[in-house]
Amino acid sequence: MAVTGRLGLLALLAAPVVGLLLPSWAGIGLAAAVLLLLVVLDLVLAGSVRRLQFARSGATSVRLGEACEVTLTVANPGGRPVRARLRDAWPPSAGADDRHRLTLPAGERRVVTTRLLPTRRGDRTAARVTVRSTGPLGLAARQGSHDVPWTVRVLPPFHSRKHLPSRLARLQQLDGRNAVLIRGQGTEFDSLREYVIGDDVRSIDWRASARASDVMVRTWRPERDRHVVLVLDTGRVSAGRVGDAPRLDAAMDAALLLAVLAARAGDRVDLLAYDRQVHAAVQGSSDLLPALVNAMAPLEPSLVETDARGMIAEVLRRTRRRALVVLLTGLDAAPLEEGLFPVLAKLTSRHQLMIASVADPRVAEMAAGRGDAEAVYDAAAAERVLAERRQVTARLARHGVEVVDAVPEDLPPRLADRYLALKAAGRL
């Protein structure tokens, strides 16, 4: 009934105009002329899209793999209602559910919510908001676009968080909280207790034993307030894909687990991302994990060879006291031979260096292949790659460098375990 009433009203309004234009429209027929006029009038009566006003709110960050919502408030200051379809456009990697229907009376406002499920890490910026406003008959529409800026930062997912409880339990053991006491170089005196079979005789405190009725030994706990520097190589070697993600993403996941563990151990943790220049840096943050994931989120691999000399110079400039430097890079022989090895002594003479590298599980699979001639050739190539990595690892070990080489799923826990082993041995 409402549509019929509108049709009658529009036909009544259009009658005088049709009478004036009828001679020129005689060739196309009266019905077509009336329809054309109704379309024009419907377009005129459609709510204006230019006068609409927009404001955003909602999420500004989200972890990769999780969903978030961004709200768009639309106000209609005009005198006619707006019946529209609205598209809140985002890049494809934002995973936006961006199409909405909107009925907005004159002088009122409405809120539409866009749900995002990002598929890539980094900053995702909203594109234009496009509104198509239809007339009361639905025969014609006005369309316009508006720039309504908003950015959602997609943070690293931190999948290795699942390994944290077990490593924290081991850290508590090292710290003496679970009655497991250790002794090592660089550890701090904790307390005295009676000697039991199996204790290190070097821990006996002879003066305390002379005053007591039993042999007394010193207990020790690992030193705190050490310095851990995480260095992400963002050069060419980090761009290679392992599975569905670049090596850089796996390196980030390992760095996050180690950073949280070291911070819980009372150590200071810094971050440096470098290839030929500094792309991110975090130093002495009191709120470590948010600072790290925000610094890592926009990082992308660069297709350039990393300047190892510049990287080491930057580390030495920023790190004055002795530290554990964890370099997350590749173990490819050629880049290390030309880049890191010539300047390695400058770093190892002042700091304890650990190199963590992401291995490709496909290489090990190829090395085991023997099905046909092609598989044998692939296996030979894979064995050569594995042999080169073993040679590089041995050479680094001769320089006192700790090396962790593992596939993406195993790298975070193995790196954390190596850190705990160094802490237990008092080598930090």
List keywords for this structure.
single chain; 428 residues; alpha/beta; Immunoglobulin-like; Rossmann fold; 6-stranded mixed β-sheet; 21 strands; 27% strand
Topology diagram in text:
Layout: H1 2-25, H2 30-45, E1 53-58, E2 61-63, E3 68-75, E4 82-88, E5 96-97, E6 99-104, E7 109-116, E8 122-125, E9 128-134, E10 141-147, E11 151-155, H3 164-174, E12 188-194, H4 206-211, E13 216-221, E14 227-233, E15 241-242, E16 245-246, H5 247-264, E17 268-274, E18 278-282, H6 288-296, H7 308-318, E19 324-328, H8 333-340, H9 344-348, E20 352-358, H10 361-367, H11 373-398, E21 402-406, H12 411-424
Parallel strand pairs: 2-11, 14-17, 14-19, 19-20, 20-21
Antiparallel strand pairs: 1-3, 3-7, 4-6, 4-9, 5-7, 8-11, 9-10, 12-13, 15-16, 17-18
Helix pairs in contact: 1-2, 3-5, 3-12, 5-6, 5-12, 10-11
CATH architecture of the largest domain: 3-Layer(aba) Sandwich
Beta-strand percentage range: 25-35%
CATH domain fold name of the largest domain: Rossmann fold
CATH class category name of the largest domain: Alpha Beta
Oligomer: single chain
What topology, given as strand order, has the largest sheet? Answer: 18-17-14-19-20-21
Q: Average pLDDT across residues? A: 85
Largest sheet: number of strands, sense, barrel closure:
6 strands, mixed
Give the radius of gyration: 34 Å
How many domain regions? 2
Low-pLDDT residue intervals, each spanning 5 or more residues: 1-7, 177-186
What is the tally of beta strands?
21
Broad shape = elongated
Structural category: alpha/beta
Q: Roughly how much helix do the residues carry, as a percent range?
A: 25-40%
Measured between the Cα atoms of the first and last residue, the distance is 83 Å
According to CATH, the homologous superfamily of the largest domain is von Willebrand factor, type A domain
The number of distinct helices, counting runs of at least 4 residues, comes to: 12
